[in-house]
Amino acid sequence: MNTRCSLLRLRRKQFIPSLLTLLSICVLLLVKYSYITDLLLFPAASDVQTFHRYNVNCSAIYDMDPVEVGKSLTIRSEKVVEDEDESLVNYTSNCSSFHQSRGYNDVCVSKEEKNFPLAYSLVVHKSAWMVERLIRALYSPSNIYCIHYDQKSSAQFISAMEGLARCLPNVFIASKRESVFYASISRLKADLNCLSDLSSSEVKWKYVINLCGQDFPLRSNIELVSELKKLNGANMLETSRPSESKKQRFTFHHELKDVSFEYQKLPVKTERKKSPPPHGIEVFSGNAYFVLSREFVAHLNASVVVKDFLAWSEDTYSPDEHFWATLVRLPGVPGEVSRSQPDITDLMSRTRLVKWQYLEDKLYPPCTGQHVRSVCIFGAAEMRWLLNYGHWFANKFDPKVDPILIQCLEEKLQEKQKFFQSQTLKTCPKG
């Protein structure tokens, strides 16, 4: 009998730790499930919620930690709530609160940045919070920012842009605005309108950079200043000899016509051949994005050749993709790239890093986000590659595709800005 009781007591003692272990595992699983549920349904918020933020470790994602990258994929697989333009309209109705909640009051300026102001032309049409986050990532009180919103944009988006311009003294709306249609002259004119306004600004900026709403910087402002100073007056943009297929874009007359898909209107090729470019200009091909010196822009504004070339480009397809690439090759322009020099491709120009689907696994690793018309919308697993490739900006980003990447780029850029500013003299707001 005593032996039987002893065995029962022994089994009970062995069972209790096992039960406790099982209960502990269940509790841990419940905590983990609750954590993930909270993470997906209730994103972490700052003291004043401005847009959705998520509880992720960006340093671990940068280091390609499989658990943290996996967490970002889990978040992305859920339906991501889009931040409404109306909420930015509401926040900018109180500029003081907006400055405080978004940290504009805390931005320091190094002596190097103050002496080398930059100008931006932002041609945008939707996703107001993404525009604000783009400006915030690049923000310096010494810079100046021109916003050109599409005349077709929603009333809420326009109100949000006007709110940004009202609250930020170095942000303004272009004095002349276009109804922008894809691949038409209107896209080029939108940038030209901002360049005209920026040229008459009291801010003596050194370089101007154009951006769209799905761009994001890969360098902090102080890093950009350091890189641009090295150009020593040269311009940075893609300029290559056009392929036979691209020559069709400016060899034939194009007409803006209604189309049945998302663009509404599109330049359509006709069979009518165009006259040769004026002044014997040799046309080069590139993209819509540039980094231009102040001297180059001043030359454009005063040049009859440039004015005639712009008029000639009116009925071409996507004139912004040959206009800048050609002008930088004109003899005698500030920062001229000689026509005899080799092509400057998009991978050689640091202005914009774009990942094309048909070049993945050849020139760069596969897209971890998703493709739209053969262009990669980047995912969080590409953050390390993006920051280390060497370009200054990249395209495309979309918070509906991967909100984690944008949030982590913001965090990394702020870290780098603070680190590089710590190495130099800087002026910070009082208080």
Automatic annotation (TrEMBL):
<keyword id="KW-0325">Glycoprotein</keyword>
<dbReference type="GO" id="GO:0008375">
    <property type="term" value="F:acetylglucosaminyltransferase activity"/>
</dbReference>
<protein>
    <submittedName>
        <fullName>Beta-1,3-galactosyl-O-glycosyl-glycoprotein beta-1,6-N-acetylglucosaminyltransferase 4-like</fullName>
    </submittedName>
</protein>
<dbReference type="GO" id="GO:0000139">
    <property type="term" value="C:Golgi membrane"/>
</dbReference>
<comment type="pathway">
    <text>Protein modification; protein glycosylation.</text>
</comment>
<comment type="similarity">
    <text>Belongs to the glycosyltransferase 14 family.</text>
</comment>
<keyword id="KW-1133">Transmembrane helix</keyword>
<keyword id="KW-0812">Transmembrane</keyword>
<dbReference type="InterPro" id="IPR003406">
    <property type="entry name" value="Glyco_trans_14"/>
</dbReference>
<dbReference type="Pfam" id="PF02485">
    <property type="entry name" value="Branch"/>
</dbReference>
<keyword id="KW-0472">Membrane</keyword>
<keyword id="KW-0328">Glycosyltransferase</keyword>
<keyword id="KW-0735">Signal-anchor</keyword>
<keyword id="KW-0808">Transferase</keyword>
